[in-house]
Amino acid sequence: MSKIQMKTPLVEMDGDEMTRILWAWIKEKLIEPFVDLKTEYYDLGLKHRDETDDQVTVDSANAAKKYGVAVKCATITPNAQRVEEYQLKQMWKSPNGTIRAILDGTVFRSPILVNGVRPTVRTWKKPITIARHAYGDVYRNAEMRVPGAGKAELVFTGEDGKEIRQTVFDFRGPGVLQGMHNLDSSIVSFAHSCFQYALSVRQDLWFSTKDTISKTYDHRFKDIFAEIYEENYREAFEKAGITYFYTLIDDAVARVVRSEGGFIWACKNYDGDVMSDMVATAFGSLAMMTSVLVSPNGQFEYEAAHGTVTRHYYRYLKGEETSTNPVATIFAWSGALRKRGELDDVPDLQAFADRLEKATLDTINSGIMTKDLALLYEGDAKAVSSCEFLDEIAGRMAG
Ligand code: NAP
Ligand code: MG
């Protein structure tokens, strides 16, 4: 059997700990036997980030910009303890943050559904994808405790020195106060990413804010989405048979719970933070959440939503076999290969991605899975190690 040929390399961003181990196994067992894999390799493992003063992260993001499709392994975001553990020159920033800043993207997260692991919400039959705006609002706020009586004001001083002033509140006693901001440019990028992603997966797009209460701030989000939709996407949406739909956040929550799923829910930064944890948990497991960063220019970076699974890695280092779930990482690879196939018009590569996903789901549906899923599974489940699980999938691919 001849291997599938690729036209353009994938940008491969290797990572840390247990996911780095799974990464190599996935390539060796599930991809390289079938695909003549072309990648431009960047080692984002913490040691190499430190050696290159984090330049490798910047280079990898620029490569993603150049080639259009990247696949990323989970990476350590260093804290004080990691600085010591790895003897780092400094506490490097989160690679995901660096990559997101360069690609200027929006993160889309969706659960992978399997028979036997039923969502907590009975009506959900299809995945719900959360698109979280990842800039500003409460994450970039200025806040203070108000010590006592006094007047709080919002003051904007223009470059020309002109002031715009507005009273926030006349305090009679102590309290708290915060200021938030967002940027038209960031909201515009967010909107483009959402509309493009909806088209690429052919699903309806919902967007919700609290514009009835926040008549200027949230309303700006609503208006920008509406303008961009009318100007750039309405026609394409109608052609694709999908809809764009705006509603209040409270109405959205009620509709989401009553829905069957199968759509994208675009959320402001805080709403997306909270709702993605709710959706992930209600669908089952973090190890089954995929994540893709989509830039407004149509670049894609695929990864798993979970981290490097440190606790399993320490057991692996002691020579123990672990039952770490590789599914979200496999789907990061299949997502990236499928997108590469689409962009380069290589149908074999797209078909391979479908086959890999099907073999993975078939394995679980046959009752063979890692421990985390076996605990949730309704039915006879055989919990196996990561290696055994990957070998089972490989067997189905070859057969
Ligand atoms: P984590 O790696 O997601 O793991 C937390 C726990 O969730 C694990 O200990 C494990 O529970 C369970 N889990 C997560 N993924 C699993 C999988 N694939 N299979 C089975 N169980 C899984 O989060 P963390 O421990 O908070 O963070 C570890 C490191 O990852 C940190 O250095 C952090 O900076 C990094 N991180 C990276 C990313 C990213 O690159 N996107 C995202 C988040 C965190 P049990 O131990 O109970 O089995
Ligand atoms: Mg959160």
What CATH calls the topology of the largest domain is Isopropylmalate Dehydrogenase
Q: Architecture of the largest domain, according to CATH? A: 3-Layer(aba) Sandwich
Helix content range: 40-55%
Into how many domains do the coordinates divide?
3
Radius of gyration, whole Å: 23 Å
The CATH H-level superfamily of the largest domain is Isopropylmalate Dehydrogenase
Q: What CATH first level of the largest domain would be assigned? A: Alpha Beta
Distance between the terminal alpha carbons, to the nearest Å? 12 Å
Note the beta-strand portion.
15-25%
Give the low-pLDDT segments: none
Rounded mean pLDDT score: 95
The dominant shape is: globular
| Contiguous helical run count | 14
Which small-molecule species are bound to the chains here?
Answer: NADP nicotinamide-adenine-dinucleotide phosphate, magnesium ion
By DSSP, the count of extended strands is 18
Taking the sheet with the most strands, its summary is: 10 strands, mixed
SS class:
alpha/beta
